[in-house]
Amino acid sequence: MGPARAAGGGWLVALKPADLSRMRVLDLSQNFSVDSPPFAFYEGPTVKWVKKMAFEGVNAQLISSTNHIATHLDSPLHFNDPGPDVAGIPLTELLGPACIVDLTQFGVGDYDIYGPEHMERWEKRYKTRIQRGDILVIHTGYHHYYNEDWYKVRNRDKPNLPRAFLRHPGPQAEFCDWVLDRGIRWLAVDAISTDHPFNTNVRRARPDLIPEVERKLGMPIDQAFPWPHAYQATHTYLFPKGVFHVENVGGMIDEVLNMRVWFGAFPFRFKGGEAAFCRCFAFVQK
């Protein structure tokens, strides 16, 4: 069937509906609520009831929040002006094939550094190539300690926000070169940040923990994460190259570990937005 002429004289493209009845959609998002904790030096959310059913016949709320809370997408505008902003990321970029790489099987834990060697070890173990154009979803297991982690089928870990914010593993700047060399479309991680916590403002917020981190890493903090040129490298180095990311994924992610799936992040169309809350889904065969 070819295109048909519309009433206004233009052309309509004939589209064939897709049958998704044999697809299972898994929610890899964390909850958002008034209790969702903010990142270091960021304000937390407020949720105010402005109308109530008993008096106005309707329930309505007013939300005030920074963008970097719960599951959210950081657009390049977050650390790179002129962006693009959230609305400037094409929908076709937000959905695609993804590899869900579980780092816990390699013993990656508190304060640890992960890098290309872990991703390539994963490829060998599962005989799966992380291909050019793939989305790379990194599973550290630290979503278990986030207070908004709602899916407790595969784990029974209790919320532990100090561990979630301060101890999750992260990469060094060299990892960003690997991401670019391999043509990774964008990143997602089940931790507060795609960067190591002590390569973020957490280092300024909790300098008392630096000796503990250095003992675990076996090197001075300035050697592991030299500032200013390596500061928040997955933000400052990758955003100008167009590689954005989603932080704080979770939910049902444990159901798709070490799999190749279709994965998508869906923020609202935020013109001028440097970041936005989003829902993340994995699409698998029933």
How many domains make up the coordinates? 1
Number of helices: 9
Radius of gyration: 20 Å
Give the helices and strands as they follow along the chain: EEEEHEEHEEHEHEHEHHHHEEE
Helix content: 10-25%
Instruction: Indicate the low-confidence ranges by residue numbers.
Output: none
In percent terms, what proportion of residues is strand? 15-25%
The CATH architecture classification is 3-Layer(bba) Sandwich
So what's the CATH class? Alpha Beta
Shape by Cα distribution? globular
Helix and strand content put the structural class at alpha/beta
Characterize this entry briefly.
This protein is an alpha/beta fold and 286 residues long. It has nine helices and 14 strands.
What can you tell me about this protein's structure?
The protein has 286 residues and is α/β, with parallel strands linked by helices. The chain has one domain: Glucose Oxidase, domain 1 (3-Layer(bba) Sandwich). It contains nine helices and 14 strands. The strands form four sheets. It has a seven-stranded mixed barrel with strand order 6-12-11-9-7-13-14. The longest helix has 11 residues, at 116-126. The model has no long low-confidence stretch (mean pLDDT 95).
List keywords for this structure.
286 residues; alpha/beta; 9 helices
Give the topology.
Layout: E1 4-5, E2 11-12, E3 23-27, E4 46-51, H1 53-56, E5 60-64, E6 72-74, H2 91-94, E7 95-102, E8 113-114, H3 116-126, E9 135-139, H4 161-166, E10 170-171, H5 173-181, E11 186-189, H6 202-205, H7 210-217, H8 221-224, H9 233-236, E12 245-247, E13 260-267, E14 275-285
Parallel strand pairs: 7-9, 8-10, 9-11, 11-12
Antiparallel strand pairs: 1-2, 3-14, 4-5, 6-12, 6-14, 7-13, 13-14
